[in-house]
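Per reviewer request, we include the raw input and output of the structure prediction for the construct analysed in the revised manuscript.
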Amino acid sequence: MSQNYTRPTVHRALVERSLRDVHGRLVRARQELAVLDEQLAVLNDAADEARLKSLVSETPIAAHEYTDAERHATTAARARAAAAETIAELERRQDELLDKLVIEPR
């Protein structure tokens, strides 16, 4: 009879531990996303400034600076999108784990 109580308790403990792990990863991923948002804003501003400078000066150097700034902004946008996708996956996993806790009897 004690075996019936042990399995759900052990399983529940594993789910709770997984939930704590996912929550910690989610917190870190959201912090990373906030940093990436700030970096992306700065890089987009720099790219816009370089674009205007390139249009006004019409020099090869200015065009190269714009291309370089735009490349950095594009790379940052990809990193931000990847971080956002990671957050979405972690949120889905967290929801799945919470469902397991709600469905399982104590």
